[in-house]
Amino acid sequence: MASKVYQLRGKVAEIWRLAEKNGGAYYKQLMENNKQHVQNPPSVENCQHLAKQLFYTRLASIPGRYESLKKEVDFVKHLLKHRKELMIEDAGVAALFGLECFAWFCAGEIVGRGFTLTGYHV
To answer: Where are the coiled-coil regions (predicted)?
Structure first.
């Protein structure tokens, strides 16, 4: 066990040296490639303006999202009315989707409790 910890420590040190050596160049390249997304001058007012734009753009997208939701609900209603025509593949996909939703719910509960399985902190 101690040898594995020593190996891991060596790997972390190696990665850290690599990040120190190439991190600045990577940052400069990243900023150069994405300079069209940088707001100049970088001020609090510009940031607040961008935040307002994002908020109201999201609000403006609600009617479209609501229409999409209505279409999905109508499709599910149609499937329930005609469930005798439902193919086993469709039922399997629906079951997997439900299982995935349940798994995300469980993961969220665990994260919400501070990554403990029982809810008690040790």
So the answer is: none
Position of tokens 């994405």?
Answer: 34
The 10s digit of each residue's pLDDT in 4-42 is: 888 888 888 888 888 888 888 888 898 999 989 888 888
Interacting residues of 47 by C-beta distance below 8 A, sequence separation 6+: 39
* Domain residue extents for the chain: 1-38
Question: For residues 116 and 109, is the Cβ–Cβ distance under 8 A?
Answer: no
Are 116 and 110 spatial neighbours (Cβ–Cβ below 8 Å)? yes
Q: How far apart are the first and last CA of the chain?
A: 24
Q: What are phi and psi of 36, to 5 degrees?
A: -70, -15
